[in-house]
TrEMBL record, chain A:
Its main location: membrane. NCBIfam families: HEQRo_perm_3TM (TIGR01726). This is His/Glu/Gln/Arg/opine family amino acid ABC transporter permease subunit. It comes from Rhodobium gokarnense. It holds the Pfam family BPD_transp_1. It is found in: Cell inner membrane; Cell membrane. InterPro entries: AA_ABC_transptr_permease_3TM, ArtM/GltK/GlnP/TcyL/YhdX-like, MetI-like, MetI-like_sf. The chain crosses the membrane at residues 15-33, 74-102, 172-193, 205-228, 248-270, 318-340, 352-369.
TrEMBL record, chain B:
It holds the Pfam family BPD_transp_1. The keyword Lipid metabolism does not apply. InterPro entries: AA_ABC_transptr_permease_3TM, ArtM/GltK/GlnP/TcyL/YhdX-like, MetI-like, MetI-like_sf. The chain crosses the membrane at residues 35-57, 100-122, 129-150, 162-184, 205-226, 232-251, 306-323, 329-351. Residues 160-349 form the ABC transmembrane type-1 domain. Belongs to the binding-protein-dependent transport system permease family. HisMQ subfamily. PROSITE patterns: ABC_TM1. This is General L-amino acid transport system permease protein. It comes from Rhodobium gokarnense. SUPFAM superfamilies: MetI-like. It is a multi-pass membrane protein. Coiled coil: none annotated.
Length: 389, 366
């Protein structure tokens, strides 16, 4: 057979169909072998195990949990922990990212240099190394009795970090967090959306302010409703005996992951934000200057809306990536979704089912973030620019 | 009237030229807010820089002779832990007398990586030959068993050389696989394109750790023992698949950015599918996809550190072991800073190279 004939054969549809058939046969064989192997080990497949009680404890939970609770509850707690850490990490990383991005686009060379040093330091070191580092730092802190104090409000100890907290139920705090996000998104949408016309367009800023005020009032009302009775609203941590009581305790595991995620993620987000601001054509800003806009208005009415449009698609990817990074919980022992799944696999042996749940969970998270961000992106995209997404 | 005209004609219409000093003043002290930022920022940088310098150099202990006790008493960094444990960090459990082999293997791998950054090697054939030869030399040196080298099995590999081995193997397997996946996803046969698309999207939506965990921990439960193979190679296969899924999308976008005329021209010349791909489409697609490809390499190198989770003794794990044992337990900051520095050197130089390529390509386009 000549080389040409071979090449044609490789490209033909029959050959491709044969390849597909081989793939199907190999997959079927693997599944069959896997089933045989599981049967030989005496493992029953199916999802019945979800209602069995676990018999083991987990380190961190937002809702009450005991070792007699069933598997589905453990998995739910893991998913909640992942979302909790993920969203706290995203929020902090975004904050860091905005600061760094602004510093790096600043015309002041010193500020610029600080931003550059920050980005290069934190971006070029693996995230898991940073998580290990912060975990080592937090567990080497002094014991609670000799905790490092900041103005009687913040205590750093080897048992965790204590911050002032609220005497409000977890459920109410979750609703408040959602309301806060909704309020901020609504405000940003009002500032930058092209849907508004006429009367509404001229009042962008007041309307955005109104959205924030409404959100603040709603948060206040929900918080008031969810208050734990007979306690002051703010609970301060204080040293009593050998331990610190009250306040909000962040475990060392959670704090280490949160620190690593926000510092590492902040470096990446800072770069995305910088690229977004740099992508604005100079003419747009010069036009605004020529029209006599003040610097504040140039920023809020021209630079910010244009930058947000350029930033959002990349930001979506980065957010999805950061949420996936919560799986590092397994490195330091934070009970995130993945750690809970892997412990369940070890304990129950329901490997295939749990892997399917794992995949389903992450597909759901990715899909949700993607959908929400794309919806925001679509609503603020400049209309009539065709395929620019 | 005529007077003013005369006068203006004598004036230079060019904008006033800024001297270096004036530019400096405008940049650093142009506005009141700038004065605060410049002075405050400089003070911050000087403070951090000086503190670090004092900790890392002035007050530090360097010699391996300084024992843990004396070292802990020092105000600054205790680099003695590195001096005492560097062999463990770089070579892991590799037999002590054979460390030169592990070191030489690393040097060869790094040499090949540097060579492939030189434009002379930017041809598929040269690149492939360099990598395959370099990789073979690496494995022969590490594994031994021939040429009078004593055999060292994979379980004894560790440290930085294991990290580099995994990275090189992932790149070597993942790159051709990614091309294959990208072409299959673009196939006109739905039998091929749909499953491959599904595979790529599923792998991309999962965190790498879950894939590593599946291949390292779950596969032994599911697969009969004769099919399992060494854990190290399962991990490499998993990482290569993960790398290929991302890289396939990068190549695919490179292919899609080509004008369709390129492929059509190939068709009119009577070239077959593979001839068009190999001589026309892929080389151009690769050139366009070079910056994101380098970026993907950078990310992959950093991600090799995740395999500590599945219990392989790579660089980070051997670093943990270097301070984890009793007497040096206090020196965790120094160990982590050192590991971070080594990663920094690799990742930073790779990403700088990527930035250089991007600049070079931008110039070439104009």
């Amino acid at each position: 057979m000549t080389r040409d004939r071979l090449v044609t054969l490789l490209a033909s549809r029959h050959f491709q169909a044969v390849v597909a058939a081989i793939v199907v046969v190999v997959l079927a064989g693997l599944i069959y072998a896997g089933q045989q192997e599981l049967m030989a080990k005496g493992i029953v497949s199916g999802f019945d195990f979800l209602w069995r009680s676990t018999g083991w404890d987990i380190g961190f939970s937002l809702i009450p949990y005991s070792i007699s609770d069933p598997y589905w509850k453990v998995l739910l707690i893991g998913l909640m922990n992942t979302l909790f850490l993920g969203f706290a990490g995203l929020a902090l990383a975004t904050l860091v990212g905005v600061l760094v991005g602004v510093a790096r686009t600043s015309h002041n060379p010193v500020l610029n240099a600080i931003g550059t040093i920050y980005v290069e330091t934190f971006r070029n070191v693996p995230l898991i190394l940073q998580a290990f580092f912060w975990y080592a730092v937090y567990t080497h802190l002094p014991p609670p009795r000799r905790a490092i104090e900041f103005g009687d409000a913040i205590f750093l100890s080897a048992r965790g970090i204590y911050l002032p907290g609220f005497n409000i139920s977890n459920g109410a705090i979750a609703i408040c967090a959602v309301l806060l996000v909704v309020g901020i998104v609504a405000a940003l949408w009002l500032i930058s959306s092209r849907r508004l016309t006429g009367w509404a367009e001229a009042r962008r800023l007041p309307l955005a302010g109104l959205a924030l005020v409404v959100a603040a009032i709603a948060i206040f009302l929900v918080g008031e409703a969810g208050r734990i009775a007979d306690q002051p609203v703010i609970s301060m941590p204080e040293l009593r005996g050998l331990n610190i009581r009250g306040g909000l305790r962040l475990t060392s595991e959670f704090a280490a992951l949160l620190t690593a995620m926000s510092l590492y993620g902040g470096a990446y987000l800072g770069e995305i934000i910088r690229a977004g601001f740099l992508s604005i054509p100079k003419g747009q800003i010069e036009a605004a200057k020529a029209l006599g806009f003040r610097p504040f208005h140039i920023f809020t009415l021209v630079r910010l809306p244009l930058a947000i449009r350029a930033i959002l698609p990349t930001l979506t990817n980065q957010y999805v990536w950061l949420i996936k990074a919560t799986t590092l919980g397994i490195a330091v022992g934070f009970s995130d979704f993945f750690l809970v799944i892997s412990t369940s696999i070890n304990q129950s042996g329901q490997t295939v089912e749990l892997l399917l749940i794992l995949m389903g969970g992450f597909l759901l998270i990715n899909y949700t973030i993607g959908t929400v961000m794309n919806a925001i992106n679509r609503s603020i995209a400049i209309k009539g620019q065709g395929t620019r997404k | 009237m005529a007077d003013t005209m005369l006068r203006t004609s004598g004036v230079s219409m060019e904008p006033p030229r800024q001297s270096a000093l004036e530019k400096f003043r405008a940049d650093y002290f142009g506005r009141p807010s700038d004065v605060i930022l410049t002075l405050g920022g400089t003070a911050l940088l000087v403070y951090i820089g000086w503190t670090l310098f004092q900790w890392a150099i002035l007050d530090a202990a360097f010699s391996a002779d300084v024992g843990p006790k004396a070292c802990e008493a020092k105000a600054g960094a205790c680099w003695s832990v590195i001096a005492a444990r560097w062999r463990l960090m770089f070579f892991g459990l590799y037999p002590y007398e054979e460390h030169w082999r592990s070191g030489l293997a690393c040097a060869i791998a790094i040499g090949v990586a540097i060579l492939s950054c030189v434009p002379y090697f930017w041809a598929a054939k040269r690149l492939a030959i360099a990598w395959v030869l370099g990789f073979a030399a690496f494995v022969i040196l590490m594994r031994g068993g021939i040429f009078g080298l004593s055999e060292v099995t994979e379980e004894q590999w560790g440290g930085l050389s294991l990290t580099i081995f995994i990275f090189a193997a992932v790149a070597l397997i993942g790159m051709p696989l990614s091309i294959l996946l990208a072409l299959m996803r673009r196939s006109s046969t739905p039998f091929v394109s749909v499953p491959v698309g599904l595979l790529i999207d599923t792998v991309r939506s999962l965190p790498l750790i879950t894939i590593l965990f599946t291949v390292a921990v779950v596969v032994p439960i599911l697969v009969p023992s004769w099919l399992q193979g060494e854990k190290l190679y399962r991990v490499i296969a998993g990482m290569a698949l993960f790398f290929a899924a991302y890289q396939a999308e990068i190549i695919r976008s490179g292919i899609q950015s080509l004008s369709s005329g390129q492929d059509e021209a190939g068709r009119t010349l009577g070239l077959t599918y593979w001839q068009r791909m190999i001589y026309i489409v892929l080389p151009q697609a690769f050139r366009r996809a070079l910056p994101p490809t380098i970026n993907q390499m950078v990310i992959t190198f950093k991600e090799t550190s995740l395999i500590i989770i599945v219990g392989l003794f790579e660089f980070l794990a051997s670093g943990n072991a270097a301070y984890g044992s009793g007497e040096w337990a206090f020196a965790y900051v120094e160990v982590y800073v050192f590991i971070a520095f080594v990663y920094f050197v690799f990742v930073f130089s790779l990403s700088r190279y990527g930035a250089y390529l991007e600049r070079r390509m931008r110039i070439a386009q104009h």
